[in-house]
């Protein structure tokens, strides 16, 4: 699972994370979405996202360009 991009808004429900899974095209996910790895997306910021899986909070950071 790789973070490809973020569409950030000060209104959290309008933010989206573009995540690529296993070489497929990136798909967009909103806060509250269930991710393909079974986690739930809980936060989107300008450079990273946070998700929870099995009660543990993890994050993905945008690659440096």
Give the strand order of the largest sheet, numbering strands 1, 2, ... along the chain.
1-2-3
Query: Main beta sheet: strand number and arrangement?
Result: 3 strands, antiparallel
Q: Please give the share of residues in helix.
A: under 10%
Net shape: globular
Computed CA radius of gyration, to the nearest angstrom: 11 Å
Polypeptide structure, described:
The protein has 65 residues and is mainly beta. The protein has a domain at 2-45. The chain has strands at residues 2-7, 16-20, 27-29, 40-44, 48-53, 56-61. The strands form two sheets. It has a three-stranded antiparallel β-sheet, with no helix packed on it. Strands 4-5-6 form a three-stranded antiparallel β-sheet, with no helix packed on it. Strand 5 (48-53) and strand 6 form a beta hairpin. The relative contact order is 0.25.
